[in-house]
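Thread: Newbie trying to understand structure tokens

Hi all, I'm a second-year student working on a class project, and my supervisor (Dr. K.) asked me to get a predicted structure for one chain before our next meeting. I've only ever worked with sequences, so writing a 3D structure as a token string is new to me. If someone could post the tokens and maybe explain what I'm looking at, I'd be very grateful. Here's the chain:
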Amino acid sequence: MFQWLDNLVTKMVEGWFGLAMDSQLGGSVHFFFYDTVKILILLSLMIFGISYLRTFFQPQKTKVMLEKINGPKAHVAASLLGIITPFCSCSSVPIFIGFIEAGIPLGITFSFLVTSPIVNEAAFAVLWAAFGWKVAVAYAVMGVLIGVVSGMIIGRFKPENHLEPEVFTGEGFNKTRPDMTQKERLAFAGEHVWDILKKIWLYLLIGIGIGAAIHGWAPENILAKYAGSDNPLSVVIAVAAGVPLYANAIGTIPIAEALIGKGVGLGTALAFMMAVTALSVPEMVLLRKVMKPRLIAIFVGTAATGILLVGWMFNWVF
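---
Reply by user tm_fold:
Sure, no problem. This is what the structure looks like when written as tokens:
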């Protein structure tokens, strides 16, 4: 699909920069430019398409829909809603708070909160480009499953008893209207592409830069030995290392891609990515405004367990 881009970047690296492709620096430079352009193309197309579809869903209608659905179906609906909402955990929290204020059961809102930062249209597009459609689809399915199961488990703990008494104002997940014209819908989609790219471009470049450095200089034998798919502890270490960090899925995918290229297990790399996006310290700080520590601990423990299981499964299957 992107062979033309690979050939173009190869000519640029060898011709413009005078670097050999089999050198560490040449390989890193190629990785950086190739991944940057590839991700931006896929990102823009995917965000535009999903943003256009998003104009047909208004926040109030979404809340009414979730209130009418009961049982496991409600958790599935909330998780699927999380796919088409913000790109990082900290931007998902205000919507989560809004759902709490709307009276939606907390277990269902947790299904949204867990899935939203892990799975979105942008991450899906980049995963497809990096690892193929099978991995992208499997990742999305497992991300939704983690959200559904986590929400159902957390709901069993009667989480309403562990909320702070203060009331906070939530935010709708977009600024669309039911009477938008076709021109307005297309304009909204175009503006949303630009808005998202402005917010994530730095994370994207940092992630690709780290990935390029790993691609060129990280010792393959050490990474393959201690973080390969046959080492179950590597997934635990990856999740523990990801929690203190903060980034969106877009910024972590290039790092995961480079780690996998050096012999790190696919499940280990994806578990790291999930932990960074879904269990970051900044997210916990925001959640502390509405949750007591016990509920935060239940949330982290449940989601982390799901991520560990997914990491081990990916290492075993792929």
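A couple of things are worth pointing out once you decode it. The first helix runs from residue 3 to 16. The CA atoms of residues 235 and 308 lie 6 Å apart. Feel free to ask follow-ups in this thread.
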